[in-house]
Fold these 3 entries.
Entry 1:
Amino acid sequence: MSPVYRWSGRWTTKRPEKVFNVVTKFNISFINKHGDRVLLGTNQGRFFKEAREEAEKELQSMLTPENEGRWRDIYGEQAVGTFRVDPFECYENGDATGIYVKEVLP
């Protein structure tokens, strides 16, 4: 699935023509009810981590046995066991350029 961008009030799968400086940051993703791997939570720069290790630490604190039922209730049965840290391209303000994670299937 290609990333989706919002540009001038429209949603498109075509990357905007304007050149943006992007950086790679890390956050948690999961499989949603449609079978897409998407960003966990909102697309706001304050939730992205500069280093993979920071995001891994957050993921480990989230995946405690007592929280499994909570994540099932919030994100659905299909999400259990699919949480992982992924890199996201982010604008300079920290927001990701898209919420979908491209997966290369074997």
Entry 2:
Amino acid sequence: MTTTMPRRDRLPKWARDHIDRLERDLDRYKAERVRIDTGDTEVFVQGPGVEPDLPLPPHSTVRFVLGETRFDVSAEGATLQVYAVGQSGVDTIAVFPRAANSIAIGALRRMS
């Protein structure tokens, strides 16, 4: 993380280096704080810009909003619990096998 202070370029090199070091330390301490706050967890966020995986508090629910349907996913033991709620009430969850270790989950709309 580099500060974009307008007068930073005018500072001596040792001062710019010191600011860079402090910013890196701050980033490291923030990441450590997240690890301390979450403790032993089974929920992590993975994706671009999240290095390493970002731990979430234990027993967190992750919400995905896809179109009009909201999927709430949580881990209970060795099982993922998936709940789907659409704007017009509860949608039916459809599970589509992809491979021995992969599935796709979608919501089927009820016709009124």
Entry 3:
Amino acid sequence: MKVKFIGQGGRSDPPSITMFGVTFPLNKWTECGDEKTLAKLSGNSHFLVGEDQAKAHTDAKKAEALAKAREVKAAKTQTAPDPEWEDLDGDGQDSSD
């Protein structure tokens, strides 16, 4: 089964890491057949193990980007309060009347 070292996603990630006698280059799929190693790495947030986990990781990134885009769009479409309207006493009525 293939394993991918994804690091933390920052600039400080090493170009590769060696664990359990296997060297994993950053963001490259590496073949790993040892079941114990696969079990340990599948619980490590810095690794993706197999296609299912890779798809889940990609789907999560897409969902995160979509949520951020919706947030930005909502912020852009909000209307600013009317500067001519004043409710100084808090009763919901314009105070200029």
